[in-house]
């Protein structure tokens, strides 16, 4: 990586900060390097699961660890009108449609699974549907979007080269959820563009999401970042993490007397970072 990178760590406060977050935060800071910018963004659009208490706890744990954002931390729930404006643009371009199907109706009609394991929407409402008394979700018409782009966009994965996108295998994904009116893919791509993120760092569990996010970036004319998906923590012997391994979160380790340095240097954190791509010029910065 030769340019000064802007990276971000974008946790969702659905629970307390755990070692998986520590890997993501550290990896993002390492990838920013000394000349780059490391940002923290709180992705709390799911207001049912992300409470103000959990957000406050997350901020406190990050401060304790010394993971500090180069700019004031952006909190997505405070910017909902900005995401609504993007939806409006896509709606005007007839790239979105309302869908009234219930989860159950979709499960019964669906026949395909997307690369990320989600169910591919069978397209029931694509050509117009109304259902009095039901709130719709808004879906991206993926076929139309790819037609507009005349391409299935791929991405640059650091250390691995160009990766072929698979957006066509996702079908019509939800961009505005029924409960929150927005969605993860929408908010994350909007904010990465707005904040000038050049290097999207995150766990390998979100690798496949990149295909969809590249479509949104291209539709909206947003800059293309590069991507670096880090290895996930695996417990000893591939088992789920135990309490002793920090499964209950950074605050439990802290109460047990661990220092911030020790948590950052936790063997499971080290192991995940060692299994991740880090350019030679970024390595020592811990
Ligand atoms: N907020 C997302 C999560 O905590 C991560 C988003 C991203 O890094 O793209 O799973």
TrEMBL record:
KW ATP-binding (keyword) present: yes
UniProt keywords, alphabetically: Aminoacyl-tRNA synthetase, ATP-binding, Ligase, Metal-binding, Nucleotide-binding, Protein biosynthesis, Zinc
One Gene Ontology MF term: ligase activity
Sections of the chain in a coiled coil: none
Domain Glutamyl/glutaminyl-tRNA synthetase class Ib catalytic: 6-256
Enzyme Commission identifier(s): 6.1.1.-
InterPro entries associated with the record: aa-tRNA-synth_I_CS, Glu/Gln-tRNA-synth, Glu/Gln-tRNA-synth_Ib_cat-dom, GluQ/Sye, Rossmann-like_a/b/a_fold
Pfam families associated with the record: tRNA-synt_1c
PANTHER family linked: GLUTAMATE--TRNA LIGASE, GLUTAMYL-Q TRNA(ASP) SYNTHETASE
Family: Belongs to the class-I aminoacyl-tRNA synthetase family.
This protein's name: tRNA glutamyl-Q(34) synthetase GluQRS
Organism: Gluconobacter cerevisiae
Gene name of the record: gluQRS
